[in-house]
């Protein structure tokens, strides 16, 4: 009786031990070659998404920094006719807002419509630079879940194929590769998609903040030029 209890206890401990060793790595490795390829592709997409996010995040953060006294200095220089000093200040500040103001200062003496158009054109170029590669994040956010679902379809095909070849003798171990592929790729695709979607929207919000800042400073500069001498 004691021997029987010990044998069952050892068997139970082995089962529990096997369950504890079930890791993400094991799930991926047990998913078959199709599952591993899709997981690898999703990992590459995640790496690209994270690289774009951090690269753009720091670029946008840098672009949003501007001295609160910047416009006061510009007003003083323009009012006193020190256009060269104003241009040097814009170049040394080196932010999208400063570049827009610098573009406007370089057009002083021409009609206000020409100055306004020059600032608008420069603004579009600055926005394009801020949004560089951000659309790739949106693409990854949409494509990653679909790639994961592709793995699900492949996994189910493998499972059905195993059932068809089993000759009525269905063994869950035969289906494990297909089921692992179906589940792991779906989860991986959704994780990559969710991360990409969140990072994309965060960058959009940060970019909009910089664009509003550029528009506000541009209007302030144009108002300065419209003031009576």
SSE order: HHHHHHHHH
Shape: rod-shaped
Radius of gyration: 30 Å
Largest sheet: none
Annotation field: number of helices: 9
Helical content, roughly?
Answer: over 70%
Average pLDDT reading: 79
- Poorly predicted ranges (pLDDT <50, ≥5 residues)? 14-21
Q: How many discrete domains?
A: 1
Strand content: under 5%
InterPro entries: ExbB/TolQ_transport, MotA_ExbB_proton_chnl
Pfam family, one: MotA_ExbB
Subcellular location: Cell membrane; Membrane
Protein name: MotA/TolQ/ExbB proton channel family protein
Describe this structure in words.
With 229 residues, the chain is mainly α. The protein has one domain (27-226). It has helices at 2-20, 24-29, 32-64, 70-79, 83-93, 96-106, 112-130, 134-165, 172-226. The protein is rod-shaped. It starts with a helix and ends with a helix. The model is unreliable at 14-21 (pLDDT under 50).
Give me some keywords for this one.
0% strand, single chain, rod-shaped, mainly alpha, 229 residues
Question: How is the topology of this model organized?
Answer:
Blueprint: H1 2-20, H2 24-29, H3 32-64, H4 70-79, H5 83-93, H6 96-106, H7 112-130, H8 134-165, H9 172-226
Question: What's this, in brief?
Answer:
This protein has 229 residues and is mainly alpha-helical. Helices cover 86% and strands 0% of the residues. It is found in: Cell membrane; Membrane.
């Amino acid at each position: 009786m004691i021997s029987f209890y010990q044998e069952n206890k050892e068997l139970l401990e082995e089962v529990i031990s096997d369950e504890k060793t079930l890791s993400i790595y094991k799930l991926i490795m047990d998913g078959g070659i199709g599952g591993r390829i899709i997981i690898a592709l999703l990992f590459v997409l995640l790496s690209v998404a994270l690289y774009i996010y951090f690269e753009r995040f720091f670029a946008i953060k840098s672009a949003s920094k501007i001295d609160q006294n910047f416009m006061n200095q510009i007003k003083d220089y323009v009012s006193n006719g020190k256009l060269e000093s104003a241009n040097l200040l814009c170049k040394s500040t080196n932010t999208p807002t400063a570049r827009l103001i610098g573009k406007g200062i370089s057009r002083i003496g021409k009609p206000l419509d020409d100055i306004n158009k020059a600032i608008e054109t420069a603004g579009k170029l600055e926005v394009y630079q801020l949004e560089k590669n951000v659309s790739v994040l949106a693409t990854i956010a949409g494509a990653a879940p679909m790639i994961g679902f592709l793995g699900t379809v492949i996994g189910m095909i493998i499972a059905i194929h195993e059932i068809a070849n089993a000759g009525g003798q269905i063994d869950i171990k035969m289906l494990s590769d297909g089921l692992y592929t179906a589940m792991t790729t779906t989860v991986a695709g959704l994780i990559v998609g969710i991360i990409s979607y969140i990072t994309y929207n965060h960058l959009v919000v940060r970019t909009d903040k910089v664009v509003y800042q550029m528009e506000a400073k541009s209007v302030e500069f144009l108002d300065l030029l419209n003031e009576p001498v």
